[in-house]
Structures are given as structure tokens and as C-alpha cells.
């Protein structure tokens, strides 16, 4: 109710083009949807419908992976204002983009957001992934669970590729919540894949049978 009142008194501006009325206008949303990421999410090589190349299918625990798009242009503006600018209202259009990108999912799949660091939550004032999870589960009528707990306050986006990979086994532990058989694992930005792989591998060890994954934005490799 408060968000609706504020939106009426001080309408949102599109984070990309500046149009009045929404955090992300329909034109910019269309541009993002039309440019979905279709390569392997891990290595960026051409791949099939599972979102992974043949090599990465054999070496990762994912059943299938979907990415909304490359972290550039409209999508970069949206994600950056949400994650680094604390624009809480951006959780809604981000969840809408995921909803549009994802196919039908098994009704017993539970949505798990990659836990934010305590440091990140303090800086933003909210757990950005949990807001996206809440919006997506509302749109998809899916249940959610959080069997993972973050055990480091270090922000991986500030670290080198080598240091990120070295942190892989020191990111998460199990929270004590029962693990479901099927999980849709969500994260906002994937760069090296360290965070998603660490979370997925721990879930597999805890007994999760099937792990689907969805990422809002793929950070391209530096060329």
C-alpha cells in the first residue's frame, strides 16, 4: 500500500530511458526480453536448450539454466540501480523478467535465492535476492525455502576471478531447513559462476535431486 501511494505521489522513472510511470518501461522491458542470453551460462560457448554446452553439462550440477540477458544497456541499468543503488521497487520488474524467461516449471520445485552477505544487506537495507524470490513465487504460485546460509561477508564482485574461485568452498553452509527434492536456484549476476556452483553443489550434497538455475544478468568475460 505504501509503495502504491508513493508511486502515485512521486511516479517512478524508467531506469533506462527516463520515461515516467515505472521503474522499467514496457519498451525497455521488451528490449531486454528480445535479447535473451542463449549461450552456455558457464563458458559462453554455443549450447542447446539446456543453457549449458556439452562439456559444462557433464561438469556442473544443473539440470537446466536460464539467463534473462547480458549485463548491458537496459538490464545493466536495472540491476545496478537495484543492487548498488538500493532501488527496492526494481525487484518487481526483475521478477517479471524472470517470469517471462522461465518456461513451465514442476509445481513441486521450490525457489531458493542465493543468500546475500550480511554486509550487503546492511548496505542496501534489504536482502535483494529474497525480494526477487518473493515476487517470483507470487507470480508463479511456487513455494520457497532457504536451506542455505551465507558464512562470509566478503563481496565477490570486488574480487579478482582467481580470488572468487578460491572462495568457492567458504561461501555457504546448510541452514538446517529441510532440503526439497527439486530446486530453482536464483541469483542476480553471474560472472565466474563461483557463487551459483558453490550453492548448487552444497544443495546436491544435502540431497536435492534436481537443480534448475536462473540468473538475471550474465556478466560477459573480459576480452
Average pLDDT number? 87
Which percent band covers the strand fraction? Answer: 15-25%
End-to-end Cα distance, whole Å, is 46 Å
What Rg, in angstroms, do the CA atoms define? 17 Å
Secondary-structure element series: HHHEHHEHHEHEEHE
Count of DSSP H/I helices: 9
Q: What structural class do helix, strand and pairing data support?
A: alpha/beta
Low-confidence stretches: none
Shape label:
globular
Got a strand count?
Answer: 6
Helix content: 25-40%
What is the strand arrangement across the widest sheet? 1-6-5-2
Q: Major sheet, described briefly?
A: 4 strands, parallel
Give a structural overview:
This protein has about 220 residues and is of the alpha/beta class. About 35% of the residues lie in helices and about 15% in strands. Strands 1-6-5-2 form a 4-stranded parallel sheet, sandwiched between helices. A two-stranded antiparallel ribbon has the order 3-4. Helix 9 (about 195-205) links the parallel strand 5 (about 180-190) and strand 6 (about 210-220). The chain starts with a helix and ends in a 5-residue tail after the last strand. About 40% of the residues are buried.
Q: Layout of SSEs?
A:
Blueprint: H1 2-9, H2 26-34, H3 54-59, E1 64-70, H4 73-83, H5 91-101, E2 110-113, H6 118-124, H7 128-140, E3 148-150, H8 161-166, E4 172-174, E5 182-190, H9 194-205, E6 210-218
Parallel strand pairs: 1-6, 2-5, 5-6
Antiparallel strand pairs: 3-4
Amino acid at each position: 500500500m505504501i509503495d502504491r501511494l508513493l508511486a502515485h505521489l512521486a511516479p517512478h522513472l524508467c531506469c533506462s530511458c527516463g520515461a515516467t510511470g515505472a521503474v522499467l518501461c514496457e519498451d525497455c522491458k521488451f528490449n531486454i526480453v528480445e535479447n535473451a542470453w542463449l549461450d552456455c551460462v558457464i563458458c559462453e560457448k554455443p549450447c542447446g536448450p539446456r543453457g549449458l554446452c556439452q562439456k559444462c553439462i557433464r561438469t556442473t550440477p544443473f539440470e537446466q539454466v536460464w539467463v534473462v540477458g547480458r549485463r548491458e544497456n537496459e538490464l545493466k541499468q536495472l540491476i545496478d540501480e537495484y543492487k548498488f543503488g538500493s532501488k527496492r521497487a526494481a525487484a518487481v520488474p526483475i521478477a517479471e523478467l524472470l517470469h517471462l524467461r522461465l518456461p513451465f516449471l514442476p509445481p513441486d520445485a521450490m525457489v531458493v535465492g542465493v543468500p546475500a552477505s550480511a554486509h550487503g544487506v546492511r548496505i542496501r537495507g534489504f536482502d535483494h535476492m529474497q525480494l526477487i524470490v518473493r515476487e517470483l513465487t507470487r507470480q508463479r504460485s511456487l513455494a520457497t525455502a532457504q536451506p542455505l546460509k551465507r558464512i562470509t561477508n566478503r563481496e565477490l564482485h570486488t574480487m579478482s576471478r582467481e580470488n572468487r574461485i578460491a572462495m568457492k568452498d567458504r561461501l555457504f553452509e546448510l541452514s538446517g531447513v529441510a532440503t526439497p527434492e527439486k530446486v530453482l536456484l536464483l541469483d542476480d549476476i553471474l560472472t565466474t559462476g563461483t557463487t551459483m556452483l558453490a550453492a548448487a553443489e552444497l544443495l546436491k550434497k544435502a540431497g536435492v535431486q534436481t537443480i534448475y538455475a536462473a540468473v538475471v544478468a550474465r556478466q560477459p568475460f573480459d576480452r
